[in-house]
TrEMBL record:
The lineage of its organism: Bacteria, Pseudomonadati, Pseudomonadota, Gammaproteobacteria, Pseudomonadales. This is Carboxy-S-adenosyl-L-methionine synthase. Pfam families: Methyltransf_25. Keywords: S-adenosyl-L-methionine, Transferase. Belongs to the class I-like SAM-binding methyltransferase superfamily. Cx-SAM synthase family. Residues 1-22 are annotated as: Disordered.
Amino acid sequence: MSESKPPGQAPEQTTDRLFATQRRPDDFRFDASVARVFPDMIRRSVPGYTTIIPMIEVITEQYVQAGSNCYDLGCSLGASTLAMRHGIPYQDCRLFGVDNSSAMIERCEHYIALDDNPLPVTLRCEDLLQTELSNASVTTLNFTLQFVAPEARAQLLARIAEATRPGGVLILSEKIHFESEQEQNIQTRLHHEFKRANGYSDLEISQKRTAIERVLIPESLAAHKERLLAAGFNDVVVWYQCFNFVSMLAIKSD
């Protein structure tokens, strides 16, 4: 563990100012600089994030099965991992958080250690496309799939569906794009206004968009639903939407 702070002390959090000054248009990366500001960044950038996280706990409690595995794929600092942990009433369940960023996993370890829930959490620093999946009742992809190469998404979802028990679910949150250009423009404008209301400047909004647009590739809601059904889930429902951010529940029938 490379963090200097002991597990009993939360990592230092700072305000997101990564794009506040003019910078080279490099691609966005989940490195140590992003990990330090990530709680502030995602709260101020993703409409509804502070609603989605506690609802993951509620959904987990409804669908988790005794003796099963639960997965948070792309766990970052563990917000959804902890929500799942608190929604699992069975001590014979196993909970896994997976992320390919060592900086995120290192900080996630601290947050897991600070939490007083006794259910063990296993963190894996590895490619979620390669991570082992089995006996799952609840899996979460919370704003993760959009960073997976489009050509690899169907196979990942098929692996998740195959590993999911009957009656199990996948919670999938994504930024989406709209088939109507007019609606896309409206939703994008509202999203940018949300960021301005949270203190981001036009320069920050513009530079962040340039940095992330080649690594975050959104798709339409229809494309997501079609692929989830093709992967092996039997029903897909949208349970939350705010502007161009959506959370879905993909259910595998009993």
